[in-house]
């Protein structure tokens, strides 16, 4: 750790020029009285709430912590962050690490009348609770040795420090504990040290704190990029973004996994997917549509990969000749997403990898296509029997994934021609693709399939009728945003990729 270099004329004048709108008049009366004998009392303190309530725009220039680098040496900066660690060295010196998003920087306080820093100011800084929100004005300097505990390899020599909001003294979970990797726990155990392990339920109960870990900051930035790339790619292929109702009168998918409710006295449910409305949009002449929106499944599945509410990435398109036209869109879409993440999100992926180590996803430039029958044959050859025309369970899917990777060198492939018995009512026989298919576009066959799947046709009459007005052959697909991120980053639980997950046991926070 480096201490503050002797003040220079340049740095002293730069500090003097920093805005002084947070003066003693704005600080709490209690502190003013306490530090009445401190000539530098105006340079630090707790800012009263009434002084933070959008009274005026000062015009001050703020610097992002993540932007602080060697080029800023000697420059006066104003930063805001959360107090991640506070380390007093002596009565006259202390270190405070501030965090903003994924960036951290070490701030140095050294009592020196020439720089306006008093011992009382150092004491104030060390009295702050972890995770308090703090404004710091100071001068950027270069440390003598590389810094291991912060992302930024510079220090800020503090001239002023103000607490905007204090966190409670004892937090329900410690951020340092929540950010540890399994390797750190193993190393501590070998050394006979006992570290606190923050369980999944505890993390989710205090999600507002848990989200501050570097890995979580990175995960949801990755998620944002997946959503953006999904939109960008489909827009480039002439798809139109739409928004469909989530309160509907009948089941979207068939089956009992539906949340039922009363809608102004009428029976209704939450949409299991935008499927029916995507198809009606195709009937409406839009040719190609997509939607990003919430999907609800009332499945009592307490597994590592199921949620009762997730973000659906859905698309539907006209088919001119063959449902491989949809496969080609899926192929291009996911290869585009994977390449974008690999090439443009290195920092985020490295951050996730430090806490949750994973092997980079392997994929082919042209996605491998396998029929359901070919997949079943590979499983049989490996000694795994699947019920004829049955769905693949989780273990079978995992095993098939390992077999495909060993044989073809890819983690991502398209399994098509799923049997009719394991697909929704609106799909054409024997033409399932990923979680999509060519759809039925004739009202008679659609009504027949709906009845076979146990759906009351009267609840989806408007949907079926739309196909009697003339409907082109079409197909589409749907995938959960959370699941894409989970699989790309090889995370072991989908709750890690849902900011505030909803599963059969969790409705808060």
TrEMBL record:
Name the UniProt record assigns to this protein: aspartate--tRNA ligase
Gene3D superfamilies assigned to the protein according to its UniProt record, in alphabetical order: Bira Bifunctional Protein, Domain 2, Nucleic acid-binding proteins
Catalyzed chemical reaction(s): tRNA(Asp) + L-aspartate + ATP = L-aspartyl-tRNA(Asp) + AMP + diphosphate
One cellular component term from this protein's GO annotations in UniProt: aminoacyl-tRNA synthetase multienzyme complex
Highest taxon of the lineage: Eukaryota
Organism of this sequence: Digitaria exilis
Residues in Aminoacyl-transfer RNA synthetases class-II family profile domain copies: 220-509
Region (Disordered): 1-22
One GO term (biological process): aspartyl-tRNA aminoacylation
Stated family: Belongs to the class-II aminoacyl-tRNA synthetase family. Type 2 subfamily.
Main location as per UniProt: cytoplasm
């Amino acid at each position: 750790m480096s201490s503050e270099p002797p003040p220079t004329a340049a740095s002293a004048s730069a500090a003097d020029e920093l805005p002084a709108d947070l003066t003693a008049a704005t600080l709490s009366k209690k502190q003013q009285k306490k530090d009445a004998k401190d000539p530098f009392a105006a340079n630090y303190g707790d800012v009263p709430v009434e002084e933070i309530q959008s009274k005026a725009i000062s015009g001050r220039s703020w610097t992002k912590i993540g932007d602080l680098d060697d080029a800023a040496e000697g420059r006066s900066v104003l930063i805001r962050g959360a107090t991640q660690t506070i380390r007093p060295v002596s009565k006259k010196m202390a270190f405070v690490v501030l965090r903003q998003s994924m960036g951290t920087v070490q701030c140095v306080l050294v009592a020196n009348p020439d720089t306006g820093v008093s011992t009382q100011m150092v004491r104030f800084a060390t009295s702050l609770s972890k995770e308090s929100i703090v404004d710091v004005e100071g001068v950027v300097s270069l440390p003598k040795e590389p810094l291991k505990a912060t992302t930024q390899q510079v220090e800020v020599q503090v001239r002023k420090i103000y607490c905007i909001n204090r966190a409670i003294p004892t937090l329900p979970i410690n951020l340092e504990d929540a950010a540890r990797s399994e390797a750190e726990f193993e190393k501590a155990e070998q050394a006979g040290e006992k570290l606190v392990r923050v369980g999944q339920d505890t993390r989710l109960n205090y999600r507002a704190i848990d989200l501050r870990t570097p890995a979580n900051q990175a995960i949801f930035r990755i998620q944002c990029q997946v959503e953006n790339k999904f939109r960008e790619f489909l827009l480039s292929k002439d798809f139109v973004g739409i928004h469909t109702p989530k309160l509907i009168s009948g089941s979207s998918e068939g089956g009992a996994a539906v949340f039922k409710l009363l809608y102004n006295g009428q029976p209704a449910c939450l949409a299991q997917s935008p499927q029916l409305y995507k198809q009606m949009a195709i009937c409406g002449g839009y040719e190609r549509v997509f939607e990003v929106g919430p999907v609800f499944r009332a499945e009592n599945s307490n597994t590592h990969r199921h949620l009762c509410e997730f973000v659906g990435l859905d698309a539907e398109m006209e088919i001119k000749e063959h449902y491989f036209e949809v496969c080609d869109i899926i192929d291009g879409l996911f290869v585009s997403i994977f390449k974008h993440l690999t090439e443009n999100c290195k920092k985020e992926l490295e951050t996730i990898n430090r806490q949750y180590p994973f092997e980079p996803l392997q994929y082919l430039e042209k996605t491998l296509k396998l029929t359901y029958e070919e997949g079943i044959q590979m499983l049989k050859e490996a000694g795994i029997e699947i019920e004829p025309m049955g769905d693949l369970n989780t273990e079978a899917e995992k095993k098939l994934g390992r077999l495909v990777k060993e044989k073809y060198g890819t983690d991502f492939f398209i399994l098509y021609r799923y049997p009719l018995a394991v697909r929704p009512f609106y799909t054409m026989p024997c033409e399932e693709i990923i979680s999509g298919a060519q759809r039925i576009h004739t009202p008679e066959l659609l009504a027949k399939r709906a009845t076979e799947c146990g759906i009351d046709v009267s609840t989806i009459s408007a949907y079926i009728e739309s196909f009697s007005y003339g409907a082109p052959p079409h197909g589409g697909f749907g995938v959960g945003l959370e699941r894409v991120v989970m699989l790309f980053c090889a995370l072991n639980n989908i709750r890690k990729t849902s900011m505030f997950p909803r599963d059969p046991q969790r409705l808060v926070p």
